[in-house]
Amino acid sequence: MFGPEGPSLRELAAQALSSVERGYDLLAPKFDHTPFRTPDEVLESAAKALAPLGPFADGLDLCCGTGAGVQVLSGLCRQSVTGVDFSAGMLEVARRRVRSDVGPLTAWVRGDARALPFPAVFDLVVSFGAFGHFLPRELPGLFAQVHSVLRPGGRFAFPVLAPPRPTRPGFWMLLGFDAVMRVRNALWRPPFVMYYRTFRLGDVLGELGRAGFEAELRALPEFGRRDDGSPRAGLVVARALSPRRAA
Predict the structure, then answer these.
(1) What contacts 178, CB < 8 A, 6 or more positions away?
(2) Which one, of 157, 156, 153, 160, lies nearest residue 219 by Cα?
(3) What is the DSSP letter of 190?
(4) Alpha carbons 56 and 36: distance in angstroms, whole number
(5) Alpha-carbon gap, residue 29 to 66, rounded angstroms
(6) Spatial separation of the C-alpha atoms in residues 69 and 105, rounded to whole Å
């Protein structure tokens, strides 16, 4: 699961017993050598799906981590790209690994996605692999924040993977991981919020609508389809309606 350049079990344990912010500060130097980083295939497929919707002027990578999504935005946005994350350690790695001397102006901002420090200045907001860190009750506020930083008609996009079926080992692995995290958070403080099975597509699309978005799911054809014809991976693309239409 982890290569020789990835974190040791001891380092992972130290991360898991920390807060989310401190945990990612600790993991940051080795994050790109873990399976937690969004695979390049997903990033490339998302970029390909978003390209026809542009061109975009200004983009924001929400919970940017070490900057993989910023690199996607750099190929889609003409003027500026911003990465925001609450982990100083992740931002430090992002600053070092992402080239900012070519393409649109790049900025890095330390901030909480639940209280974004921006006005409505973005045409595109993306996020990759961060939603497990938000409890379901936090989604209305999170999506409202994203809506508040988008210009009318701007897009909010993020990939989703089809959940494994109960007949697959992956289903039980994710179920077990979430159960372990719930026990950990019941017994240890501060909590470390990271769940794989709480971000349900139907609920998410409903919350996006209530936050003032018009949302759709676009299949990512590079990942094929399941036996029932449903896509194995998709891209949620939500368009920000004007405040008057969203009311």
Answers:
(1) 195, 196, 197, 198
(2) 160
(3) S
(4) 28
(5) 9
(6) 15
Q: Where are the domains of the chain?
A: 38-246
* Per-residue model confidence as pLDDT tens digits over 130-179: 999 999 999 999 999 999 999 999 999 999 999 888 888 888 888 998 89
Q: pLDDT for 52-92, tens place per residue? A: 999 999 999 999 999 999 999 999 999 999 999 999 999 99
Contacts of 215 (CB under 8 A, 6+ apart): 205, 208, 209, 236, 237, 238, 239
Beta bridge partners of 150: 122
Per the CB < 8 A criterion, the answer to whether 111 and 21 are in contact is no
Quickly list DSSP for 94-143: HHHHS--SSSSEEEEEE--TTS----S-EEEEE--S-GGGS-GGGHHHHH
| pTM for the model | 0.91
List phi, psi (to 5°) of 57: -90, -55
Place of tokens 């390209």: 51
Residue with tokens 């609920």: 203
CA 220/CA 186 separation, integer angstroms: 37
- Mean pLDDT for all residues in the chain: 91
Would the CA dihedral through 222, 204, 245, 111 be positive or negative?
Answer: negative
DSSP secondary structure, 79-96, as one string: EEEEEEES-HHHHHHHHH
Contact 246, 212 (CB under 8 A): yes
CATH class of 38-246: alpha beta
